[in-house]
Amino acid sequence: MYVLRRLPSLIATLLAVSILTFLMTSLLPGDPALQILGAENATPEAIAAVRAELSLDDPLPVRYLHWIGDALTGDFGRSYRTNEPVSQAIVERLPVTAEIGLLAIVIALAIAIPVGMLSAYRAGTRTDKVISSTSFGLLAVPNFMVAILLILIFAVWLGVLPATGWVNFTDNPVQNLRSALLPALSLAIAEMAVYTRLLRTDMIATLQQDFVTMARVKGVSNRRILFRHALRPSSFSLLTVAGVQVGAIIGGSVVIETLFAVPGVGRLLLEAVLVRDLLMVQGVALVIAVSYVVVNFTVDILYSYLDPRISHGRSAARV
Amino acid sequence: MRGHRRLRGGPWGRTLAAAGLVGLLLGTAACGGGDDSEGSDPSSAGGGGISEQGEPVEGGEITVGLEAETNSWLPGEYGGANAGTTVAYAIYDPLMKRTEDGEIKPYLAESMEPNEDFTAWTLTLRPDVQFHDGTPLNGEALKTIFDKYLMAPTSNVKNSLADVTSLDVVDDLAVTYTLNKTNAAFPSVLTGAAGWPFSPTAAEEFGEDAGANPVGTGPFTFVSWQRDSNLVVEKNDNYWQEGLPHLDKVTFRPIPDEDTRLASLQSGDIDAMQTLRQGTVSRARDIDGVDNYEYLGNNSGGSIFNTTKAPFDDLRVRQAMAYGMDQPALIDVIGGTGLTPEATQYFSPDSPFYSEEAADAFPTYDVEKAQELYDEYINDPQRSDGQPVGTDISFTYNCPPDPSLNELSQLYQSFWSALGMDVKLNTVEQAAHIQNGLAKDYEVQCWRVGDEADPYITLKNAFTPGPLNFTGYTSPTIDEGLETLRTTADLDERKAAVADISMDISENVPNVFTGYTLTDVAVQEAVKNVDGWEFPDGTKGDGVPGATTMWGFVWLAD
Predict the structure, then answer these.
(1) pTM for this one?
(2) What is the domain count for chain A?
(3) CATH class for domain B297-517?
(4) Distance from CA of A164 to the nearest CA of B (A)
(5) TM spans, by residue (chain A) (predicted)?
(6) Same-domain status, A237 and A161
(7) How many CB atoms lie within 10 A of CB B211?
(8) Residue A319 domain-assigned?
C-alpha cells in the first residue's frame, strides 16, 4: 500500500527530472555539432549537415517527446560523439560506480558506528573531543586532496595498491577489489565523519532515555546496552542521512573516477558534459536520478522496518 | 636556441633535438595551457636525459598512460587529439609521415607523385600489404574508404579534403586524387586521420560499431577496448615491415588527471605516459629511472585580438598590448620557465620554417613604447572606437576555467591595466569559448595558435577569410605568401614565403604568444627507442611530435 501511495509522486519527480535535464543540457552554450566536427572542420555546411543528422533543429518539445518516448523503452539513443548506444554505456559503467559507492558506504559505516558510539559513550571526555575534532577536520578536506594523499601513500610510497586504473570483477575479483579500494576510501572519509557526528548526537540522546537507565539499573553490561538497546533507536537519522548521502557519493564519483581513471558513470557524465554529448548527458542524468530516488525510497521502507512505532502509526492512520 | 632545454647526456641527445622538428596536428582551437605547478629553473631541471638504448629486444608488454580517451577509432568519426593519434599509430599506418627534416614522405604508401601543376596526385601503394582481417590494401580499398566514409556528410575530415574532387583507381595499387586547384601541400593531409587506411570490409561488417572495432594495417592488431579504462593491442605477426614490431602487447590507459598519471608512472603501474602540460614535464624530469622524450612543437599558447572590432582594428592598440606584456613572466605562470623559449611566430625554433628576422621583429616587453602607442591612440580624435579623446579603452578578456589560465589572465590584466586599459576578466567554458572564436564574438581571448600541419594549411586557415580566421586579420603580403606555398614544392621558396608571412604577423600582431608547448613521452628506463622510428627506406622520422609515438619501433630492455 505504502509503495503504491508513493508511486504518483515518484513518477512526477522523475518526469520533472527528465524535463529539467533535457532543458538544461539543450540550453547550454556550445553547439554539439561543433564539438563533433572539431573547430578545423566546422564549416557552416558541415555544421548544418551534422545538426540535420542529429535532428538538432527540431523544436525542443518535439525532441523531448522523441527522447522520452524512446527512453521509456530503454533506448536512450546513440552518443553523438562516440556513436555508442547510451544505454550500453550506462549498463557497462553503472556497476563500477555502484561498487565503489557501496564499498565507500560500508567502509564509512564500519568505522563510523564504533567510533560514533565510543564518542557518545565518552561524551565530553578527551576521547570524544579528539574524535569530534578529527571528524570536523576530515569533513573540511576535499575528496580530491584525500585521493592524491592516498595515492601518494599507498601507491607511490608503499607500493601496495595501484595508483589508478580498474580491473573488472569478472576478470579478476582480487585485483578488482584492489582497484576499488583507494577510490572508495577517498569517498568514504567525508561520509565517515558525517556518520560519526550524527550517530554520536543521536546516541547521546538515546543514552539519556528511561529504558537505558532501566537497563543499567537491571545491571545489563555497558556493551550490551550500547549494541543491543541503544544502537537501533539511534540509527534512524543515520540511515536516512546515508540514503541522502548517496547523492554526495554520486557527486563525488565525478571527481574521484576521473582522478583514479576508473570507468564509472561519474566520469562518463563529466566527459559527456564537456563535449556537449547531449543524449549521453540526458541518459546518464536520468539514470542517476532514478537510482537516487529508488535508494531513498528503499531507505524509507527500511526506516519503518527499523522503527515499528512509525510503521504501525502510519498504517493505523491510513485504515 | 636549438636544443637549449633538454637532452643532457647520451648519444640520443642529438637525435632528439633533430626530432624536435615538425609533426602532427595538435588541434588549433583548444585552449589548454600550462599547469598550476611551479616552473623549474633551467639549471636545476634534472632528468630530461635519455639512457643508453642498447640493441633491440623482442617481446614483452607495456602499459601506456594517455591524457584522454578517444571517441571513436574510425577516421571521419575519430576526434582524438594527441592521445588518440598515439594509439592510432599502433593500429594504423599513416600513408604519409614527416621526416626529421620536415619533409612529407610516403610511409605506408610507396610513392606520391604530383602532376605538373599540382592538381592531381597519384598515390601508389606497396604490394602485398593486408589489413588485420586479411583484406588486401589496394586502390579499391582506398576508394571505398574515401567515398563511403571520409566524404560522408558528417565526416570530420571532409573539410581537410575539400580540394579533392574525386579519388580514382588507376590500377590495383594506385589511385589518383584529383584536386579542384593547385595544392603543392596536399600530401600533408594524408599524415592525419584522412590518411590512415582501415579495412573497408571490417567497417562495413561492424556498421555503426565500426568506431569501436578498428582494423588497420599497423604493427599491432586491436584486441579489446573498454572505454575510459583500457585499449589492448597485440603484435601483428603479419606486419608488412620485416622485424617489426618488437613488443608483444601494448595496453593504453586513459588517465585524464596529470597528477595521478604521473603518480602511476612513479609507482610503476604504467611504463610510459604522455603529457602536454609544462608543469608535468618538469616534474617528470625529476623522477629517477625515467627517460623523457621531449619535443618542442609549433603549438603556442597566447591571446588573440579580434581585429574586426574597435579598438583592436587599430594597429597601435595591438602593438601597445604586445609591447606592454612581459612574455617570460607569463610563461612562468604556466610553469614553462626552463622548458620553452619565448614564442614569436607560428613556428618554433626547431621548425625548418622558423624565421630569425620575424623573431627579432616581434614586440618584446617595452612599457614606454607601449604607453606611447596607447596614448597616441586614445588621444587620436579619429580613434576607431569613436570614444571621446583621452578616454581609456575598456574590454573583456575571455578564457576557459582552469587554475593556471586564471592566473595567466590576471597577469595579462595587470600588464594591460598598467597602461590605463580597463580589462574585465571573463571565464567562458571551453565549448562556448571555441564557438565565440569561430563566430568572432569576443574582444580579446586566450587561445592556442600554430600546429604541426603544413604551413600552407596552418596559415591559410588562420589568415584567410572564414570562421577559422579567429582574429579576422588578413593582408596582401600573407595572401601572396600563401599563393607561393600553394603552388610550389621547393623547400627554400616555401621557407622564404613563410618568413614573409611571419614578418607580416610580427609587424601587425593579430595575436600575442606565451611560449611554445613542450610535450613529453616519459617512460621507465627499460622502454627504449621511443623516438627512433624510421621510414621503410631508412630515412629518420620526426620522433615524437606532440608526444605521439610510433609504437612498432619501441622495445623493452631486459
Answers:
(1) 0.86
(2) 2
(3) alpha beta
(4) 6
(5) 7-28, 100-124, 136-160, 180-199, 236-260, 280-306
(6) yes
(7) 22
(8) no
